[in-house]
TrEMBL record:
Residues 119-137 have a biased composition (Acidic residues). Residues 109-144 are annotated as: Disordered. This is Cell division cycle protein 123. Belongs to the CDC123 family. GO terms for cellular component: cytoplasm. It comes from the Eukaryota. It holds the Pfam family D123. It comes from Mortierella alpina (Oleaginous fungus).
């Protein structure tokens, strides 16, 4: 029995679905073009006035290679807490607060001090030894990109939310000191991007479900990655999760609306019809006929005073997109629009799987944390990495 529609028997056809139609899940073909239409840089310029203020920064190839590389070294920094504790112990309390620049210098110096130098091979010539030492001590460095990011952060009010073409690093929020995606500088952003499986998917697997060939060229196959990768920085707002909704459009018709956060909010029942009317009106006035595809999903946020709706994102009408409180069968076969769907009770919310439950915390993090502070955990993690490297 459905936890969302307890009154419905398991074999009964969902409301709005033609029971005489065979329930075959036939999705609209996911083509390269349809996927690219949902990329942020493709839709944001057209819908800028409806969305949150953002900046789009094309990523250089050397930075993309850095994201692909193993390890979580942050450009310009290394050593984590080892360097911080060295620097702070040397200051002997002269300053209660060490500056960010001092921290970076200390981190860089620690990398040079602790970098391994293997002299055991007599067969290597001096040039090879120099090259190996340089490779071992070098750190990623992207001054132009960092400057562009810092300027964008300042323009957006000093706090931003990062994402790539499609995905945000929301599965990596555990690694941030705030447990959110709120970023104040380039280092915050780089750490989240390097730690996210969702970002890695954008880099190498975004097109793997596409049914056509890249650019419609016979023999081209499925594209591995976008021709252009963008870093998107969005102005940070403390959004109320209860007021986020996902909308499903099939054949140019809005067929379903679901709350996004899988938590039961009792107050939503009292304003359910108002919310639905506002979202339907927003779709008909602002979205319908302006997005290039006939089948897609889009996310919206309604302000707490319910006076404004923000367009958050577009996603393909495809199985890879979370249908939330719907079943894809319902959305594919319905002949009419479903009412706004909300969690029916706290019990229903408890049955929902926690997002990213299987990829949120690496096992090493769980094993090492043991109730430690961030600094204690970072030092333990650093020591473990150094031990594994020797």
């Amino acid at each position: 029995m459905s936890i969302y529609r307890p009154e419905q028997e398991p074999d009964a056809a969902p409301s709005g679905v033609d029971a005489t139609v065979a329930p075959a899940l036939v999705f609209p073909p996911l083509t390269h073009q349809r996927l690219e239409n949902c990329a942020f840089a493709a839709w944001y310029p057209k819908f800028r006035s409806l969305s949150i203020k953002s900046r789009i920064i094309p990523l250089p190839e050397d930075f993309i290679a850095y994201l692909h590389a193993d390890g979580v070294f942050i450009p310009g920094q290394s050593g984590i807490t080892m360097a911080l504790s060295d620097s702070e112990s040397e200051s002997d309390g002269e300053d209660d607060a060490i500056s960010d620049m001092d921290r970076i210098k200390a981190l860089q110096e620690a990398t040079s001090r602790h970098a391994p130098n293997d002299d055991s091979s007599d067969d290597d010539d001096d040039n090879n030894e120099d090259e190996e030492t340089e490779e071992e001590t070098s750190l990623p460095y992207f001054p132009s990109l960092e400057k562009e990011i810092e300027q964008a952060i300042e323009e957006l009010g000093s706090e931003v939310f990062p994402k790539l073409n499609w995905s945000s690093p929301r599965d990596a929020s555990w690694i941030a000191t705030t447990n959110t995606l709120k970023c104040h500088n380039a280092a915050d952003i780089f750490l989240l991007l390097k730690s996210s499986d969702f970002v890695a998917h954008d880099l190498a697997h975004a097109y793997e479900d596409c049914s056509d060939e890249a650019g419609g060229v016979v023999g081209a196959g499925v594209r591995v990655r976008p021709e252009r990768l963008d870093l998107v920085l969005r102005k940070w707002f403390d959004l109320a999760p209860s007021m986020e909704f996902r909308c499903f459009v099939r054949d140019h018709r809005l067929v379903g609306i679901s709350q996004r956060d899988m938590t039961y909010y009792e107050f939503l029942k009292g304003i359910q019809q108002e919310l639905e009317d506002k979202i339907v009106g927003f779709f008909e006035d602002k979205i319908h006929g302006h997005f290039p595809d006939s089948d897609y999903t889009f996310d919206v946020y309604i302000t707490r005073n319910r006076e404004r709706i923000y367009l958050i994102d577009f996603n393909p009408f495809a199985q890879k997109t979370d249908a939330l409180l719907f079943e894809w069968e319902e959305l594919l076969l319905t002949q009419e629009r479903f009412p706004l769907r909300l969690l029916a009770s706290e019990a229903a919310g408890q049955h929902m799987q926690q997002p990213f439950a299987f990829n949120r915390y690496p096992s090493d993090v769980t094993d090492l944390s043991n109730g430690q502070t961030v600094a204690e955990f970072a030092e333990a993690f650093y020591k473990k990495v150094q031990t594994a490297a020797t």
